[in-house]
Input
Amino acid sequence: MKKIVALGRGGVGKSSFIALMAKYLKSRKRGSILLIDADCDQNLADLLGLNLGQLQINTISDLLFDLRYGKIEEKMKSFSLQQKIEYLINQRALYEGDGFDLLSLGTKWAEGCYCQANNILKGFISGLEKNYSYVLIDSPSGLEHLNRRLTSSIDDLFAILDPTQKAFQNLKRARKIMTEIKIKFSNFYLLGNFRFRDEFIGLLEGNDEFKYIGKIEYDRSIEEFNLQGKSLFEIQEDSPMFISVKEVASSLGY
Ligand SMILES: Nc1ncnc2c1ncn2[C@@H]1O[C@H](COP(=O)(O)OP(=O)(O)OP(=O)(O)O)[C@@H](O)[C@H]1O
Ligand SMILES: [Mg+2]
Output
């Protein structure tokens, strides 16, 4: 299993990147894909044209809420907590789609301390991940989510940068926090977003711990697909952003 995470400030293009990376991996037929939406807005599902409400798919935080307040089926009452969590995720939270599965964490997960359930849940998610060839995690903006420690080990982290000094400082902090809370990563790649310009590469020089791997092209069709609620999986092969994602992914051996 190979784990990919997109990180970056608000609106830099993380979710679009994860969606197109999944489209690329699917087209390469290299194995099964699990997408984890760690953003409360559930934006990733939207970008994939999925209405999880209509599909009656719950977020993990919805399940925890129901579990905590006893809103569960009668037959589950005799289950252990572990069994309840497994049952609920499989029945209600895991969306099984064409070419990828999706799990959304939702909003309330970090609230309060329902520690036992949280720990079982993390264990269950990391067990589930092992069934897939690729796990792609779409992060929310901000750095607080790192403290949830959803994952303790990442293969390729794609930090997406807009052309500001702040963006780079933000990534440095993210990297520091990850080291402090012991989230391991094999590669920390920097990827310029669709507003990035080559002259900003100078900002990144002298920082050996980051590897700049290129930029994502501006793509009008991404905006149009978003507006129309169409799945980014349907985007044309020659869309500028998809070409950028393919180039980056194939240069890294994907
Ligand atoms: N390559 C691109 N060209 C043009 N517009 C883009 C591109 N990538 C993303 N966008 C647009 O930028 C906006 C933000 O994209 P996206 O939702 O992927 O970012 P995000 O980093 O996930 O945002 P958030 O932090 O809110 O989750 C969207 O309106 C999207 O259509
Ligand atoms: Mg997003």
Remarks:
- The longest helix spans residues 165-180.
- The chain has one domain: 2-251.
